[in-house]
Input
Amino acid sequence: MKMKLKPVKLSAKRAVAPVGHPVVPLKERRLNFGNKWDYAPAPEDSKSYVIAPQHELFINGKFVAPASGKYFESINPATEQTLTTIAAANAEDVDKAVKSARRAYDKVWSKMPDRERGKYLYRIARIIQEKSRELAVLESMDGGKTIKESRDVDLPLVAAHFFYYAGWADKLKYAFPGKTPQPLGVAGQIIPWNFPLLMAAWKIAPALACGNTVVLKPAETTSLTAMRLAQIFQEAGLPEGVVNIVTGAGETGAALVNHPDIDKLAFTGSTEVGKRIAEAVAGTKKKLTLELGGKAANILFEDAPLDQAIEGVINGIYFNQGHVCCAGSRLFVQEGIYSTVIKKLRDRIQTLRVGNPLDKNTDIGAINSKPQLEKIRELVQSGVDEGAQLTQTACALPAKGYWYPPTFLTGVTHAHRVATEEIFGPVLSIMTFRTPEEAFERANNTPYGLSAGVWTDKGSKIFKMVSKLRAGVVWANTYNKFDPTSPFGGYKESGFGREGGLQGLSAYVRLT
Amino acid sequence: MSDLRLDVRKTYKMYVGGQFIRSESGRFLPAKSSAGEHLDNICHASRKDLRDAVVAARPATDGWAKKTAYLRSQILYRAAEMLENRASALIAEIARSTGVSNGQARKEVTLAIDRLVYFAGWSDKFSQVFGSVNPVASSHFNFTTPEPTGIVVVLAPDEPSLVALVSLVAPIILTGNSAIVVASEKYPLPALTFAEILATSDLPGGVINILSGKHAELLPHIASHMDINAIVDASGSAETQVALQKGVATNLKRYTVRTLSDKDWFTKAGEDPYWIMDTVEFKTAWHPIGI
Output
């Protein structure tokens, strides 16, 4: 840390304030580091990684040009510069990919001894670990997330996911006592742009471990690292066609969803699109799992460990620019600590550093795309128009790129759009409550049910809240923690099915 | 008694929120035997009746889910006791409705009772078998437990009229869900007699609700209702399946099809404990470990 703060000498004699340094009353104290809070730039090296100017589709183990001959640009949202061009797959390409996956399923993967299947996944996990820094840098350049997060959160979890599910491949019968688990066949998987590689790992690893083959469609703004993953599959010697990757926008996704030879569809994304997919598969034999939006309540009780809780609230909403489906975007504060919490939050967000995602000191990176930035602006404006009070950091934002400062809104009521709609940005809506009953009732008063947070030092209260909250993941005295052994997924309109853990296997097997 | 005595015919009421009700629409339908004989009358449920059933089931599921697993288990076992006690009424109902022999009807009723006992025992075991403590790679305690999803609509098949119904409903309610059953359109009487027996058990009102009437009329309303959490469809009809799956797109109801042949319901295939998993939600909780 290059903070230019004078070290404080600790001495037993300093029990009283030294003469000439009057004690500032507590209520007037504010964190104000001024320009002392400036760090020297510490950018991660990105020069040593070469990005090819054009990326093809990955079908049957080879990189092939799209049938349409069309490509689209992928930009770095922090600089608005074009990083590369990506192939746009149409229905013909998707059909080729599905056929390749079917062939690989019938001829190779379903016949592969389960232990060998597992060993491929172990090998993939190892290669990911070895290329972890490169992948993290590319992830940050392509999606705008900070290197701190892509390097320390995304990539370790990506590798861990492959390691975890690798070990399941030859132990599946123990996951389903009394049953014989069988693979489903070809899985079509559509993933979002907020955790591009991690979502690919969440989808691909359990599918392959259970003996399925895959056609994956990455999000159009973040396809770059998925294509690197394709290279890793090649390097690992994964049999041709076991994983196919088709890039493109909604049209590509629709072709995958509607393809008649898909046995299983897994989608992570918005609730709106999830519902359309559910409608499209009605009347088909396709097995479906959906991991959709959220509007999580983070509930802060008076007896919470306050400083820890503030850190948890900050991490809960500003992690990954708030582009997190389980983000703690509604903060419920018990009335007695409201003014203290607001003061601490106001001071804490001033210390968040927005800027170059590749700088190791950056806390908040770039918003993933221009449309997303516009959506955030529009929703925050609606909050202000409807009467909420806006607090934002005073930090300067870079001139180029898509940026949004850490923001919170107070005076929010349930009638406000910012209290009910998913913003998917660094914007926190703050409300108050009096009793635990009021807290869980209001927390549950949403069509979503993905996650929730509880902060209190009283154990019995935690268990009560955990049981009352209608959400698939409840973080108590912590937030936004993920692990391959821990199932993730929603109640209600946040989707169905679980990803991760023992329970995550169910989505990819047929029990006989 | 004189041969001149006239039978007292009954109109079977529907079972909603622990009450026996007629359709708010005032409509009735004849219940006929397999031979076409007019046996009795049943209520013809309307959209409003379905909505009323949901209103009754919502608080019921809250209370039922809150009961201990041990108590739910005992209450289901008590229901089996009541069925055993009233077996002859059910045997007669099945035989006269579906036209099977008394022997076959007896076989079905005794199996239904045994199956209820079987599932009763799962109440306090399913979360141990299907839940988990997860060894996360950080200093957190992390565990996953299955919880009831809420209100589940059940489409029962025509045959076997009782054992299928029990096999469908038991794995739903044993976790704390409540069920709204749309009885077989062809043979509704065994389901309605089952309701009359349940009413004398300790099962709280509203945990099982039974409607009768025309499936086609109710399907779109089941699919579009925003406060129904899940559907278990054993109708066996492709059209019904498509109509109900629209409900997934409405509010992401959990939707499961049970495709068993009439004979399958009498085998082990009809008592799959993994069916419990179709109407639960897995909740994962995290807490730091530290001092």
Q: What stands out?
A: The longest helix of chain B spans residues 47-66. The radius of gyration of chain B is 20 Å. Chain B has a mean pLDDT of 96.
